[in-house]
């Protein structure tokens, strides 16, 4: 039986997306089973996205049985005009303000450019930590598409056909999104011959 890897998340949409990205390619043998656990981790403060993800992963390791492979994923939305803010705090901005007010934050500025960044921190069964990061450039736009997944409806990637993440089919989004890119690196690492 394939070993289990724990993904620390309580977000069902995120779990579905990650399972899709990490599933074996055609003809590839399944090397692991992905399960999730909703562990309440401290939200680290800071601008260093790798530090935040590693800190969360270390907390998760302490909560799980010794030797249990585990990973956390942290996603940031960084506005160029605000020198990278809201960054790692975007989840809390969306929760407390909503996407319409986030768009309004940039109303007085011509620069709507942003980058979406996903950082994965993984602890293997030996207790070694590894990080993987994906970045997608784009711009902040008025909400378009379903408002069911964070800030997807206000981020229009530079690549693609001029639509927001929320307007894209999942397979198209996964090919160009910061999460898709970070997890592609992670998948390559997990499926590499050991």
Key words describing this protein structure:
globular; 6 helices; Maf protein; 194 residues; alpha/beta
Task: Explain this structure.
This protein has 194 residues and is an alpha/beta fold. It has a single domain, classed as Maf protein (Alpha-Beta Complex), CATH 3.90.950.10. The protein is built from six helices and seven strands; from the N terminus they run E-H-E-H-E-E-H-H-E-E-E-H-H. Strands 1, 2, 3, 4, 5, 6 and 7 form a seven-stranded mixed β-sheet that branches. The chain is globular, with a radius of gyration of 17 Å.
Oligomer: single chain
Structural class: alpha/beta
Shape: globular
Distance N to C terminus: 17 Å
Query: Which residues form runs of ≥5 with pLDDT under 50?
Result: none
* Domains, number: 1
Mean pLDDT across all residues, rounded?
Answer: 92
The H/E string reads EHEHEEHHEEEHH
**Amount of beta strand:** 15-25%
Q: What is the CATH fold-level name?
A: Maf protein
CATH architectural group? Alpha-Beta Complex
Q: What CATH first level would be assigned?
A: Alpha Beta
Total number of helical segments? 6
Described by strand count, sense and barrel closure, the largest sheet is: 7 strands, mixed
Measured as a percent range, the helix fraction is 25-40%
DSSP strand tally: 7
Radius of gyration: 17 Å
């Amino acid at each position: 039986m394939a070993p289990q890897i724990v993904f620390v998340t309580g977000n069902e949409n995120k779990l579905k997306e990650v399972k899709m990205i990490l599933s074996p390619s055609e003809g590839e043998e399944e090397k692991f089973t992905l399960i999730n656990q909703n562990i309440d981790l401290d939200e680290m403060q800071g601008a260093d996205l790798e530090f935040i993800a590693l800190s969360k992963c270390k907390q998760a390791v302490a909560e799980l049985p010794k030797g249990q492979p585990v990973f956390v994923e942290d996603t940031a939305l960084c506005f160029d005009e605000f020198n990278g803010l809201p960054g790692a705090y975007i989840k809390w901005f969306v929760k407390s303000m909503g996407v319409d007010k986030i768009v309004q934050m940039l109303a007085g500025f011509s620069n709507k450019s942003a980058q979406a960044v996903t950082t994965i921190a993984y602890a293997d069964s030996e207790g070694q930590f590894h990080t993987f990061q994906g970045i997608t450039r784009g711009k902040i736009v008025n909400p378009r598409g379903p408002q069911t997944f964070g800030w997807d409806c206000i981020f229009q990637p530079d690549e693609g056909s001029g639509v927001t993440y929320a307007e894209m089919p999942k397979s198209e989004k996964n090919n160009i999104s910061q999460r898709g890119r970070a997890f592609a690196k992670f998948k390559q690492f997990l499926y590499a011959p050991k």
